[in-house]
Design brief:
Keywords: Cell outer membrane, Membrane, Receptor, Signal, TonB box, Transmembrane, Transmembrane beta strand, Transport. InterPro entries: Beta-barrel_TonB (IPR000531), Beta-barrel_TonB_sf (IPR036942), TonB-dep_rcpt-like (IPR039426). It is a multi-pass membrane protein. It holds the Pfam family TonB_dep_Rec_b-barrel. This is TonB-dependent receptor-like protein. The chain is mainly beta and 194 residues long. A 9-stranded antiparallel β-sheet has the order 1-2-3-4-5-6-7-8-9, with no helix packed on it. The chain is built from no helices and 9 strands. A hairpin with a 7-residue loop joins strand 3 and strand 4. It has one domain.
Length: 194
C-alpha cells in the first residue's frame, strides 16, 4: 500500500506492507559452543513481516530555504505460531531540520542540518534474544560547494552522536558481548571534481 500527496511546499506519505514468506530462513542458537563461541543453526519457518512508514516534508513559502522532515518506521516479524522472528529492527522516529543557502562568490548549494533520530525499545524478540533499550541520537551537518577563483570543491562536516550517547543497537552483532555502537564522531569530507 502506498499513499502520497505532494505539492510545491508539502509532501505527505504512508507506505505499508504485508509479506507472507514460506520457508523464511533465520538463525537460532543450538546451545553448543565452539572455542567459546555460540553455535547457531539455520532454521526455516513460514513467517509474516508487516509494517510501514509514515512521514511528511514541509518547506513553507516564502521560506523555501527551510525544510522540516519527519518519518516513523515500524516492522514486525512473526512465525506462523505467533512467536517473534529474531533480528527485527526497533521502531524509529527520524526528524531533520535543514536550511539551504548561498554565500555570495564563494559558497553555493550550502546547507546546514540538525537531525534527531529516536530508536524505541525493542521488546518483540524471539526466544533466544534479549530486549534492547531505546536511544536518541543528535547529529549536525554543514556543507556546500566552495569556489576559490577557478577552483571548486564540495565540502561537508558532520557531527554524529553529538552528545556521545552510549547505546547498543538491537541488530548489533556485538550486543551479546556488551560492546556499544560508536560514540561521538566528527567526519570531514572534501571532494574535488577534476
Amino acid at each position: 500500500m502506498n499513499l502520497e500527496y505532494k505539492n510545491s511546499h508539502f509532501e505527505f506519505f504512508i507506505n505499508g506492507f504485508y509479506n507472507h514468506i514460506n520457508n523464511y530462513i533465520y538463525t537460532s542458537p543450538t546451545g553448543q559452543t565452539l572455542e567459546d563461541n555460540d553455535v547457531f543453526a539455520y532454521i526455516q519457518d513460514n513467517a509474516k513481516l508487516y509494517g510501514g512508514e509514515v512521514g511528511f516534508h514541509f518547506h513553507p513559502h516564502p521560506l523555501d530555504w527551510l525544510h522540516f522532515e519527519t518519518s516513523f518506521e515500524t516492522v514486525t516479524g512473526k512465525k506462523d505460531n505467533k512467536d517473534y522472528l529474531p533480528l527485527i529492527p526497533a521502531n524509529n522516529w527520524n526528524n531533520t531540520l535543514r536550511t539551504e543557502f548561498k554565500i555570495k562568490n564563494w559558497l553555493e548549494e550550502g546547507f546546514a542540518s540538525l537531525n534527531v533520530s529516536s530508536t524505541f525499545d525493542q521488546d518483540n524478540v524471539s526466544g533466544f534474544e534479549t530486549a534492547s533499550k531505546g536511544y536518541t541520537l543528535v547529529n549536525l551537518g554543514f556543507g556546500g560547494t566552495v569556489k576559490l577563483g577557478k577552483t571548486a570543491f564540495d565540502i561537508n562536516l558532520n557531527g554524529n552522536n553529538l552528545f556521545d550517547k552510549k547505546y547498543i543497537a538491537h541488530l548489533s552483532r556485538l550486543k551479546t558481548d556488551g560492546v556499544p555502537n560508536i560514540g561521538r564522531n566528527i567526519v570531514l569530507g572534501v571532494n574535488f571534481n577534476l
